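User: Could you go from structure to sequence for me? I need the amino acid at each position, not a summary. Structure tokens:
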């Protein structure tokens, strides 16, 4: 069996799930999760069960020791090999993992993912409520474009503000111009963890094609708290996507099933050029 250590928010959990499920499928073995991360006060909530009731959890002192001693384990411990992700980019050595391995890392690359398999796993188990259903119906009949603007911890916490690129409205205006140029009547759906700030500060005046084509804009603010994941479903139902340097909107675009979708993504995920990923995005995505 393979065991993945969960870590991070919903987008990260999805990358970790996708990587280990895809590898387990390749090796014809089972996969499980060390969920101890969710027992600590600093952790994000467990949310992967929006797709399915997942009972693949391992517990016990063995796994606590594996995690506590991970930096000191060279290869194997208590009958399990240990694999530690060393780079943000896709690692070819991941393909060499064998059965009976404890795995930890973020695995944020489309190259780890068996797309056909994972899109079956990531099917929402709950039907949308009435309001979200109405929005989805509109999205599917319009030239809908999701636009995700992440602020929150990226601007409020120094340790994040100094690491992640801060995407200004210039990025979003250029991205909108690219997509608006190729559709008839843009309908822009804006998502953010600081939606009121965005509502007060965002203008389409810097997107000439949006103005020319009388683009419609709608700010999504009703999916809050435990239901915030519903924004992921809404983004995936838009025809096209503009994402932030956020795993949450990455998955919103990735799960978009429109065969003709245009996805615009930031070339600089991190502030330091040497840290920026080469294997994060599918080749068809447009980088700015």
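Assistant: Here is the amino acid at each position, in order:
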């Amino acid at each position: 069996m393979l065991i993945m250590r969960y870590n991070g928010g919903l987008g990260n959990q999805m990358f970790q799930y996708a990587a280990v499920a895809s590898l387990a499928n390749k090796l014809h073995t089972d996969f499980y999760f060390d969920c101890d991360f969710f027992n600590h006060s600093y952790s994000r909530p467990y949310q992967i069960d929006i797709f399915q009731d997942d009972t693949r959890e391992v517990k016990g002192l063995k796994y606590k020791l594996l995690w506590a001693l991970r930096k000191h384990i060279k290869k194997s411990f208590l009958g399990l090999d240990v694999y530690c992700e060393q780079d943000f980019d896709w690692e070819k050595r991941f393909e060499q993992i064998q059965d009976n391995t404890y795995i930890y890392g973020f695995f944020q690359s489309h190259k780890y993912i068996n797309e056909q398999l994972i899109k079956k796993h990531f099917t929402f188990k709950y039907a949308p409520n009435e309001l979200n259903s109405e929005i989805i119906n509109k999205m599917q009949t319009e030239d809908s474009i999701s636009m995700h603007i992440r602020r929150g911890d990226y601007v409020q916490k120094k340790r994040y503000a100094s690491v992640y690129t801060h995407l200004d409205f210039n990025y979003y205006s250029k991205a909108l111009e690219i997509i608006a140029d190729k559709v008839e009547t843009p309908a822009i759906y804006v998502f953010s963890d600081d939606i009121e700030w965005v509502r007060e500060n965002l203008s389409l005046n810097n997107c000439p094609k949006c103005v020319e084509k009388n683009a419609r804009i709608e700010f999504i603010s009703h999916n809050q708290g435990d239901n915030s994941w519903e924004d992921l479903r809404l983004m995936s139902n838009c025809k096209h996507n503009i994402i932030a340097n956020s795993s949450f909107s990455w998955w919103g675009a990735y799960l978009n099933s429109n065969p003709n979708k245009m996805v615009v993504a930031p070339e600089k995920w991190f502030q330091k050029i040497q840290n920026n990923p080469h294997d994060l995005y599918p080749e068809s995505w447009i980088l700015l």
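One structural detail worth keeping in mind: The mean pLDDT is 90.
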